[in-house]
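User: Protein folding is very new to me. Would you mind checking the protein record under this note? It all follows right here:
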Amino acid sequence: MRTEEIVWGGVSKDGIPALVSPKFVPPEEAPWLWDGEQVFGVEIEGDARAYPHRVMDWHEMANDTVGGVPVALAYCTLCGSGVLFESEVAGRAAPFEFGSSGLLYRSNKLMYDRETLSLWNHYTGQPVVGPLARETIELKTRPLAVLRWADWKRRYPKTRVLSLDTGHRRDYTPGRPYGDYFASSGLMFPARTDDATLRPKDIVLAVRDGGRHRAWPMRLFRGGRVLNDAIGTRPVVVVGDGWSDTLRVWERADLTFDSRLDGPASTPEALYDAAGTRWRVTEEALIAPDGRRLARLPAHNAYWFAFAGFTGRNGSVFTE
């Protein structure tokens, strides 16, 4: 990271207040949440939770425990990207608790941990400035879904949803406080926009697999699609619907999947390979009747400028 490119984002440390062990309610206690609104969906060990964008726009960080796993949902509104990290690291006494530093790198947020005050890269989950910067720490990422509330609660009817009782007084009306930014083509802070393959704020799904990075433009999945592709030499299958900005990526080994789906592309119940085998869909893996599993790869939505500016020559994008 080029530290000379770190800039102040106009707010102080914790000026955007992180959520810590937030409250959740069942769907019937959240009539304020419209079916068409986007949420971040998380499911771990049968514990399904939804984090509405309208709430996360104001907080950008949620420190939580899902399915017994300490996690941190880090959301960079400026780069359109939410990433779910495990906040527990082997060898450390307690999970990290994260907040927003108020600093940016190429219009990507830098979070910080409250134990050492080190700055962390939101994209990689690695400390980049401070006491931990020289340690070989990288937070494990977990699969995270971005989809409409109606789709998530249909798939997980027993889900719980983040409560508006956050302990902070905010106007949680949809579109506040970044509605104008989301609707515009412009950026608020310096970023690298020299790669003209896509428009700077085109939405892509981004996957990082070791030192390789791959992006799929959301617009190519409008109406639903199953795409057999690869990250380097690693075969993957990408499934989703670009109209709802919802894509997922799984390993596919030496298999090829066809276009058949059980259920909508945004929340399919099953995929079919070329031999006709039905693979049940979970948030963690594709599961065959004989017990074979194809792991889901952690991925996140992002604006093109954020992906291209961070990955540079190590990134590739699927085009037609």
